Amino acid sequence: MYRIAVLISGTGSNLKSLIEDSKAAGLYEIAIVIADRNAKGINHASENSIPFLVLDRKDPLLSDKVLDAVKGTDLVVLAGFLSILKGQILKEYKDRIINIHPSLLPQFGGEGMYGLKVHEAVLKSGKLISGCTVHYVNEDVDAGRLILQSIVSTEGATTPEELQARVLGKEHETLTTAVRMLAMEGSARGMR
Ligand code: GAR
């Protein structure tokens, strides 16, 4: 079975949807959940008997510790993970780390652009659409090759929280679809 590691920093609603989807689809399994702080989302891992590891986002060896913990998995999924991975993991897991970002990249991305800040900036810009992006992770923040995007209308959204909720619903669908696609592709490659 295709095995993924899921990295989180917050409430873990994307993790929850991946857990549900992994059970429904039977295409991949979540081998480990890693948090870079005491994230609320860890509860989803413990409630579903998924091994988890809590690291310290201020630890200079964070990326190396993540690499040690994900070894043996096929894909690393950043699902609301707010630390920036650096060094060896980006080499060893080249094209095997993906991230979900709550905007239509390349717009409203880059270091410091995360969570509500993204939705604030989108509303301020007056754009009629927003959305989310699943992309590969490389050395440049939010700039790796795109995998999948979904759009939502910003119409009628008056607060960043409102837009965030709208985009988050799409994120769950988009991230699980992207992981299914990569799992099918990875499993097919393994069979050849
Ligand atoms: C999601 O909106 C995700 O796109 C965002 O954090 C939220 C996590 O929600 N990630 C970033 O902003 C990364 N740049 P969740 O913990 O409920 O899945």
TrEMBL record:
Could you tell me the superkingdom of the organism this chain comes from?
Bacteria
Name the chemical reaction catalysed here: N(1)-(5-phospho-beta-D-ribosyl)glycinamide + (6R)-10-formyltetrahydrofolate = N(2)-formyl-N(1)-(5-phospho-beta-D-ribosyl)glycinamide + (6S)-5,6,7,8-tetrahydrofolate + H(+)
One CC-aspect GO term: cytosol
Q: What does this protein do?
A: Catalyzes the transfer of a formyl group from 10-formyltetrahydrofolate to 5-phospho-ribosyl-glycinamide (GAR), producing 5-phospho-ribosyl-N-formylglycinamide (FGAR) and tetrahydrofolate.
UniProt-annotated site: Raises pKa of active site His, residues: 142
In this chain the Formyl transferase N-terminal domain maps to 3-179
In this chain, N(1)-(5-phospho-beta-D-ribosyl)glycinamide is annotated as bound at: 12-14
Q: What is its EC number?
A: 2.1.2.2
> Which family does the similarity line name?
Belongs to the GART family.
Q: Where does (6R)-10-formyltetrahydrofolate bind?
A: 99
Pathway listed for it is: Purine metabolism; IMP biosynthesis via de novo pathway; N(2)-formyl-N(1)-(5-phospho-D-ribosyl)glycinamide from N(1)-(5-phospho-D-ribosyl)glycinamide (10-formyl THF route): step 1/1
Q: Does the keyword Transferase apply?
A: yes
- InterPro entries with a match to the protein in the record: Formyl_transf_N, Formyl_transf_N_sf, GART
List GO BP terms, alphabetically: 'de novo' IMP biosynthetic process
- Give the record's keywords alphabetically: Purine biosynthesis, Transferase
Q: Give the molecular function GO annotations.
A: phosphoribosylglycinamide formyltransferase activity
What this protein is called in its record is Phosphoribosylglycinamide formyltransferase
Q: Where is the active site?
A: 101
